[in-house]
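SECTION: protein entry
WANTED: fold as tokens:
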Amino acid sequence: MNEINSKPEIGLDPADWDDIKTLGHQIIDDMVEYLKGIGEKPVWTPIPEQVKDELKKPIPQEPANIFDVYKDFKQNIFPYHGGNIHPKYFAWVEGTGTPMGAFADLLAGVMNSNATIGDQSALYVDKQVINWCKQLVGYPADSSGILVSGGSIANITALIVARNTIIANAKNAGVYAAQGKLTAYCSSETHNCLGKAAEVIGIGNEQLRKIPVNDNYEIDVEALKAKIKEDKNNGFMPFCMIGNAGTVNTGAIDPLNELLQIARTEKIWFHIDGAFGALAKLVPAYQDKLKAIEEADSVAFDLHKWMYMQYEVGCVLFKNAATHRAAFATAVNYLTAHDRGLAAGPETISNYGMELSRGFKALKVWMSLKEHGIDKYAAMIAQNIDQAFYLGRQIQQHIELELMAAVTMNIVCYRYNPGNLDDDQLNVLNKELLMRMQEKGVAAPSNTLLNGKYAIRVAITNHRTRRNHLDEMVAGTIAIGNTLMKEYDSKLFKFDFLVKK
């Protein structure tokens, strides 16, 4: 046997708890002051090379003073965040976060709950939050759901349940249990995470049929029907249809009611990817267009997007709780429930998803909804939609700017177009314009391609944004675009793709 170690036992708690208290007060003071003045700071700051070098150093061997650790964070990490806490951040679709959400993550970190198992408060809060999520989209009380990291895992989870429900014994035999190759259907505008989901569940990306869209970037229903018929005639087995409640490129909403009827006729699973757009259901003007969510077999959405909560927390709901549980539940002796004690708690959340280890995601949702109430969130979403339509009108009022797609919800796509360049030149020009806008800290939209045309893409899921921020972005676009055209005239800026190597 090994000899008993006579060295003093050690731990990771501080030697002086007052130091932790002092540092905690300093952190809160610093963060509050930073957020109070966030609008006066650049949206995004490029990371200097010396900071990148600092963040390549090897693992520390010896302890450091906690105040020095925090100083290192303030100097090398905090100034170079992604920018989504800023009122002029419009890149991708990312929520802004709130002070209460940050406090919730701090409190969850102190509790350090593995929020999937045991008779502990975290599981009861999780269940309550799932019930609140059902109410958000009009799902019945006896439906089911799970909190996940975001839309990607939510959609994968939905497709696993769809596959296992439509195909008998798929849980054990996988796709080999199907009478023919499984096929799923979505529009060509669907988020790429659905392609990954098709790969993960074993059908392969080729069997995710990407149906063309119409001029409004909505799925072409007649093309969808034709493809399903063609696949069935060729021995394929359609099992799932995915509708978009807000596409990532333009915010387009597929004709969900029509898709629902097709799915019911074909007897296949109907899933809705509503990563951000499903929550527009809280706005009266969008309730009819999103009514089909209530009848869908599953729906995915992110609370860290249009509910403005801290990363990361997404949700997927299932109309039939039994099929959801059947897809993941596995009896193992080390998870056996007991009559009393720690193992007497709610059913382990691992029976409803992949994870047995998971942080207390639900707390930030619980605290945030209690702080603001759902009516305020609905008003915030409506405000963002109004801001998008306002931005669309502002773009149309400037001869140098071109609106690239109709504004339908909270996404606006446009480009700078001086009127004397072809599309290839405009693509290069607008790409350079966007990068300069970000580097100067003017605003931080993202980009996309619409029918091969480079577009500056503005996604408004930001509770700090005001109309003046949109005005500043429009003015910045025109100013940078005009500068680029002057540089082009002076031979300082080139359309590089036209230069022969």
